[in-house]
Amino acid sequence: MVNVQGPWSPLIGRLSLGAIPDNPIIAGAFLFSAVLGVVILGYLTFGHKWGYLWREWLTTVDHKKIGVMYILIGLVMLFRGFIDAVMMRTQQVLADGPHSPGFLGAAHGYLLPYHFDQIYSAHGTIMILFAATPILVGLMNIIVPLQIGARDMAFPYLNALGLWLTAVGAALIMLSLFLGDFSHAGWVGLTPLTEMAYSPGVGVDYWIWAIQIASVGTTLGAANLIATIIKMRAPGMTWSRLPIFTWTSLSTNIIALTSFPVLGVALGLLGADRYFGTHFFTAGLGGNLMLYADLFWIWGHPEVYFVILPAFGMMSEIIPTFAEKPLFGYATMVAASFAIAGVSWSVWLHHFFTMGAGPSVNTFFSIATMIVGIPTGVKVFNWAFTVYHGRSRFETPMLWAVGALFMLLLGGLTGMMLAMPPINYSVHNSVFVVAHFHTMLMVVIYGIMGAVAYWFPKVFGFKLDEPLGKRFFWFFTAGTIMVFIPMYTSGFMGMTRRLDYIANPALLPFEIAEEIGIGLYVVSVYYFVRQLFVSVRDRASHRVGADAWGSARTLEWLTPSPVPFYNYAVTPRVHARDELVWRREQGLEAATAAHYEDILMPKNTPVPLVIGAFAMTLGFGLVWRIWWLTDASFLGIILTVIARSFVRDTDYVVRAGEVRKIEQGLRGNTPGTGGDGTQGGVGVWRPQESGS
Amino acid sequence: MAHDDHDPLNHPEVRVASGRAYAAAFLIAMALMTVSLYVARHPAVAPHPMLVLSGVAAFVVAVQLLLLLKLDFSSTQIWTSVTFALAFPLFVIAVGLSLWMFHSLDARTMLMGLMR
Amino acid sequence: MATPSGGMDVAADGLWEAHYHHDAIATRTLGFWLYMLSDAMIFAGLFAAYGVLSHHYNAAGGPTLHTLVQPLSAYGETLAVFASVLAYGGAMVALKNHSRTGVLFGLGAAFILGAVFLGLELRDFAQLFQAGIYPQDSGYLSAFFALVMTHGLHMVFGLLWMAVLFVQVATQGFTDKTVYRLLNLKLFWHFQAILWVLIFTFVDMRGVL
């Protein structure tokens, strides 16, 4: 084991009172979290909700509830990452030029350089791995089994395990805010900066273990989803009838399954350097620090497509629904998804063109990068032709989908510029690059926001409020333009990224514009929260039937909204690519099965939660080097897994009579009746209603 | 599952087991690994010993995939084969392109000279 | 066709598929095979690291492969791995023939041979440590140990799994769960043998050259 700086004891490792930061900003964040925590705990305790929480959520293996929890984690982390963004923008607008003022002990601006470094590292790590990834995984979790007519995922227990491991990763990052510090080496963890010699604190360790534990969850989830799509399709759901979102989920999870292990290796070897004193990425003794960049980006680039392909899938579902036309070019859409996934594996060097590999290597990776533009272009034209001669209705999901299209155009074109090594050399490490990949990630965010609005009624049985949703969209879009267009410009003017102090006062106007942009984002977040609040409050008037939009096309809109826990009372037989359209044309839209049958469902289990708890103590012990705790937690995980393997009775039967009763209750739940029958669905609001 | 009236031992993936395939895989693999050992200790017998060793290894891996893991296009194994065919190139790409880029980097930063 | 209440006769229209069941065992084995493919990518990362770090200058003047590997010991380990796989194959054939004792016998033999492999490998490591050769000495040694030890760690978990499964087959017989676990462990165990071929060739034999 490597000797660490500062005190260490066998009992509590590196923990000490000094680990609690004494920064007023963090104290404010702590106060906010503590108050929120107390309110939630108080509600659970005095509202007698613990039993409900335990039965319906913490021990559930229902793919819809797991998906909802994934999305909740993602939204909380999205909020955290957004606060980080506000802080960075504010620092940069304040710390501009030698005469800029300093507050809270900082020479310029209000953040000390080390604190600022942690903020941008946390922002990147959180937004990619703990906001975008969980929300996408959550949406795939909810929608894919419904789209293919399955009762649940192939491995419901594993699905819950993946959720709790992701939650542990998020929890570790949040913990780093109040205990110790976070990595200051950027979200990519530049070596040798992340080595023990240059980062002796616990920040990098938090970063390593948060990602490592969460990515195990993501890998398991990927295997689960691929197996689900291959093996659990309803009869008649042939490959040529598979909805595009399911196709993109398949391609994206192939990426996740094969790329996340390489991230595990990169971080594992870095961890070996930090804990055992090996020399993988050190600057001396035969280490190779660019090897880290290589391994990291072998994962990192496919990860970019891992987040963007589902967004493409979402757009491919939303646009035909609101253009009231079948998707143009189904086969090319599928081929393009797999082409993007395939090419994503041979472009990773473009993240470090300036490493100095030979011209042949750079040319290979440059051309491979540009090739990505071909399938992406195919997709853009397919969406455009879908809208062409359609009857487009610009409801909120459609607005987001069209917005995503424009973001893709802007991000894709700047990406083409960056794919050329000569341009790349000159704008490398500038905020032009930052603006480019944020535009690309906006495609993901727009896709996600559209998908949330689009599928929300499917999961909860009522729509989100339209006027507020539109305000949210327009303020968000205005913010995006105001932040990132100036950022492209200042990047061209030579502004490098990750600056806590900007020496050139000529850049101030751009920083001011970006600050206004982030202000618009703040307004948009207000409308988002208000939209959620108003929609839940007025849910009785927002109720929808099975087909929430009246023009939906795919199978998931066949089953009632909210979806009962068994998804389909009887497994549907699929006849067409757009099954719902087919049934509508045949006049069979409202047809229900006349006979119900017994359904075999997986039982709830607390085991994934227990393993998650052990993973949490394992991660905590590793960060603070408390070896007895790590050993005990690791042993706990292994023993729990073995004990679970001896449990033989993991399923139960829902009787046909019961299914009939639930179905009849749900079918009465249409807009006209104003009924609140949420039997069986994701009954978030049920206990509240039964109490009133 | 408590209510199964079917016998899991009749599953096609259980029926696929074959003693002859296992014995053949063992003998072929062991024989070829012996050849590898011989070539490695007496490199003069082949012009490019590392190339020969790589070829032998690739052959043994193929034999094991076919005889032990039974990768083929039957309805039982088709998805095993397809997913393998999708993932295998990624293994090659990850290792191959890494080696290539660092070979190029080392050549240009003159680290190769340090080998001597 | 549709009645006013929306109810339809299942048999008449084929809109629904009654009593539809998935092949649970095939789903399980496919899921586990997918996990094995992702596991293979861990080795891809380690092989890439080993390939990049196994130049003379990465050894920082310390020992290189030639002093690290013992060809005969590695050959013995190869024999143990392949024999263990053969024994596991015996268990698979016994499973096909409904023989519980045969499966237990095969599992037991595969376990012992796997333990022999690990014993040989640990002896190699012990000899290296005695000679004062540690993973911390150079990038070269770090990469070498990481690759070989990760494979060894997989073998340890395989043996643990085999022991648990031995108890389950002995006490529960052939249920859906034990059968798919036997099939999954087969995938795992055979996959480790395949990886060992690569390690034997590109680490041990390359070192002998």
Description:
The complex is a heterotrimer of chains A (692), B (116) and C (209). Chain A has 21 helices and four strands. By secondary structure, chain A is mainly alpha-helical. A two-stranded antiparallel ribbon of chain A has the order 3-4. The longest helix of chain A has 35 residues, at 113-147. Chain B has helices at residues 12-15, 19-41, 49-67, 78-108. Chain B has a domain at 17-69. In chain B, helix 2 runs antiparallel to helix 3. Chain B starts with 11 loop residues before the first helix and ends in an 8-residue tail after the last helix. With 209 residues, chain C is mainly alpha-helical. Chain C is 78% helix and 2% strand. The longest helix of chain C has 34 residues, at 139-172. Classes of the chains: A mainly alpha (692), B mainly alpha (116), C mainly alpha (209). The interface between A and C is large, with 62 and 59 residues.
Principal-axes geometry of chain B comes out as flat
Radius of gyration of chain B: 21 Å
How helix-rich are the residues of chain B, as a percent range?
55-70%
Give the integer mean of the pLDDT values of chain B: 87
Name of the CATH class of chain C: Mainly Alpha
- Contiguous uncertain segments of 5+ residues of chain C: 1-12
Give me the number of helical elements of chain B: 4
Summarize the main sheet of chain B. Answer: none
Task: Name the CATH architecture of chain C.
Answer: Up-down Bundle
Q: Provide the gyration radius of chain C in Å.
A: 24 Å
Say which CATH homologous superfamily of chain C is assigned: Cytochrome c oxidase, subunit III, four-helix bundle
Cα separation of the termini of chain B: 65 Å
Helices and strands, with pairings:
The complex is a heterotrimer of chains A (692), B (116) and C (209).
Chain A: H1 24-46, H2 50-58, H3 63-94, H4 113-147, H5 156-178, H6 203-231, H7 244-276, H8 289-323, H9 330-343, H10 359-371, H11 373-387, H12 396-418, H13 421-427, H14 431-460, H15 466-492, H16 508-537, E1 571-572, H17 579-585, E2 592-593, E3 599-602, H18 607-624, H19 627-645, E4 651-654, H20 656-667, H21 686-691
Antiparallel strand pairs in A: 3-4
Helix pairs in contact in A: 3-4, 3-5, 3-16, 4-5, 4-6, 4-8, 4-14, 5-6, 5-18, 6-7, 6-18, 7-8, 7-9, 8-11, 8-12, 8-14, 9-11, 11-12, 12-14, 12-15, 14-15, 15-16, 18-19
Chain B: H1 12-15, H2 19-41, H3 49-67, H4 78-108
Helix pairs in contact in B: 2-3
Chain C: E1 7-8, H1 10-13, E2 16-17, H2 24-53, H3 65-68, H4 71-96, H5 100-130, H6 139-172, H7 176-208
Helix pairs in contact in C: 2-6, 2-7, 4-5, 4-7, 5-6, 6-7
